[in-house]
């Protein structure tokens, strides 16, 4: 017996077929029909939100994402909990793409402005937002999987979840199963190598140098992972070179402060003081920058 439009999940499945044929508007319409008939289906709600974000319809996607995140108490079902966690990451990325104030972006991630909660969803989103030691600065890079085809995009959503939940071996298996590696996949591989104290350069080299963007968030994220690895090895000259390149690509003030620290470790105290003073000019109440300037005077 074939499923009709009243069968839960039927329109959702048809929407995926429409999407495979390249009919994104038709897929969105079918998902809307599914949710009208069965508003409690989280998979359909998440699929529609993903397609709306990919189409640049962020305001239309937000109610679906808020509805998924706002389930109280959190669902016990593992699949639903996963969808809820991905919704956190997707809403965070969507708000960042709209250029909303950072407070609203952080609020979407479920993170306190002062401390990062220890629950799984917050840890997931912290990792999606910040793929290494520099939390909050890889947001756009982590959102890159949204631009992929539906199945790889779903795999990369799972990849982000696994990394965020410290299930590194499973994350490596997902990476290995992807049909081809994107720069974002290489960033994740680099982060996994960094966390395992492995060879970060080899992980990043899974994507040829010619295929890496030379500007934008992915390029900055790559430089920051390289810098974090160099700092761990005590190679402060390499660290400062990578961070300086990231700053030249428009990395935020916190990266400039890390550059100042790296330059100080490398023995270039004048350059370190200059970088810290630049941070203070942009943020006069930055306590770490002020303290660093005082130490270097």
How would you explain this protein's 3D organization?
It is a single chain. By secondary structure, the chain is mainly alpha-helical. It has two domains: 10-185, Serine Threonine Protein Phosphatase 5, Tetratricopeptide repeat, CATH 1.25.40; 211-296, Serine Threonine Protein Phosphatase 5, Tetratricopeptide repeat. Helices cover 68% and strands 0% of the residues. The chain has helices at 10-20, 24-37, 42-54, 58-69, 78-97, 102-109, 120-129, 139-142, 150-164, 168-177, 183-195, 200-204, 217-232, 236-248, 253-265, 269-282, 287-296. Helix 14 (236-248) runs antiparallel to helix 15 (253-265) and helix 15 runs parallel beside helix 17.
Number of domains: 2
- What can be said about the biggest beta sheet? none
Number of helices: 17
Multimeric state of these chains?
Answer: single chain
**CATH hierarchy class name of the largest domain:** Mainly Alpha
Count of extended strands = 0
Mean pLDDT across residues: 72
Q: Percent range for helical residues? A: 55-70%
Strand content: under 5%
């Amino acid at each position: 017996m074939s499923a009709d439009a009243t069968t839960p999940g039927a329109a959702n499945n048809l929407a995926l077929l429409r999407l495979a044929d390249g009919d994104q508007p038709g897929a969105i319409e079918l998902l809307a029909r599914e949710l009208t008939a069965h508003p409690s289906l989280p998979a359909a709600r998440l699929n529609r939100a993903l397609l709306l974000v990919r189409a640049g319809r962020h305001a239309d996607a937000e109610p679906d994402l808020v509805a998924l995140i706002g389930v109280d108490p959190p669902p016990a079902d593992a699949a639903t909990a996963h969808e809820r966690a991905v919704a956190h990451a997707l809403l965070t990325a969507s708000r960042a793409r709209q250029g909303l104030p950072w407070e609203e972006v952080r609020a979407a991630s479920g993170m306190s402005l002062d401390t990062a909660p220890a629950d799984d969803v917050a840890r997931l989103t912290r990792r999606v937002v910040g793929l290494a030691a520099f939390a909050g600065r890889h947001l756009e890079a982590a959102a890159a999987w949204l631009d992929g085809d539906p199945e790889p995009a779903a795999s990369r959503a799972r990849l982000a979840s696994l990394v965020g939940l410290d299930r590194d071996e499973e994350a490596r298996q997902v990476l290995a199963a992807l049909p081809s590696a994107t720069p974002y996949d290489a960033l994740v591989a680099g982060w996994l190598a960094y966390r395992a104290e492995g060879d970060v350069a080899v992980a990043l080299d899974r994507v040829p140098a010619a295929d890496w963007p030379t500007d934008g968030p992915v390029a900055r994220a790559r430089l920051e992972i390289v810098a974090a690895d160099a700092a761990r090895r005590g190679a402060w000259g390499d660290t400062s070179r990578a961070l300086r390149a990231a700053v030249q690509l428009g990395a935020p003030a916190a990266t400039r402060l890390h550059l100042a620290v790296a330059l100080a470790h490398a023995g270039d105290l004048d350059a370190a003081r200059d970088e810290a003073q630049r941070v203070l000019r942009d943020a006069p109440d930055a306590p770490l920058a002020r303290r660093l300037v005082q130490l270097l005077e």
